[in-house]
Amino acid sequence: MKERWELMDDSKIVQLYWDRNEQALTATSDKYGNYCITIAKNILGNKEDAEECVNDTYMRAWNSLPPHRPNILSTYLGKITRNLSFNLYKRNTADKRGGGEVPVVLDEIVDLVSDTDDVEKEIDRRELVKAIDDFLGKLPADKRSIFICRYWYFDSISNIASRFGMTNNYVSVLLNRLRLKLHNYLLERGFEI
After folding, report:
1. Contact assessment for residue 158 and residue 101, using Cβ atoms and an 8 Å cutoff
2. Alpha-carbon distance 5 to 64, whole Å?
3. Are residues 60 and 137 in the same domain?
4. Same domain, yes or no, for 88 and 13?
5. Whole-angstrom Cα distance, residue 55 to residue 69?
6. How many independent structural domains does the chain possess?
7. Could you tell me which SUPFAM superfamilies the record lists for this protein (predicted)?
């Protein structure tokens, strides 16, 4: 009986990478292809570019497993896809092309990030990441999920509303309130905004 890849446990898929078995790529594509395509397409707004990023994600996973052995394969692949998509987005916008949710999402959170020198920037970035993690950890699960859908996965307002059974207006207002709470939370912790 042939084992279904989409049902394969992540640890088995990771082991395929470690064994240098090319079936790892098929198993990854079958189980996480749509997930990665969604991330890339939300950032890039273009199916062809999204597919290119996802193919690059598989190659990057192949080249990095080993030595890495991620605990959560979906998160590992999602992060690779997201980074590759941002890189391609930067190249595309430099060429006056592109689309997707990136400009809208970045406009929403631009006030939460301050511009500093390089050394300070790295230190501030680490502290900022920890503060945002702490803030998100204190939110109810549904609000945290909505925030992450918008600002990590770059989901559109309408997709989030549909997914959570809400109106577009409710999601927009909720995200605005969460950004304001995050803004105040960061100010209270000494971040310059």
Report:
1. no
2. 21
3. no
4. yes
5. 20
6. 2
7. Sigma2 domain of RNA polymerase sigma factors, Sigma3 and sigma4 domains of RNA polymerase sigma factors
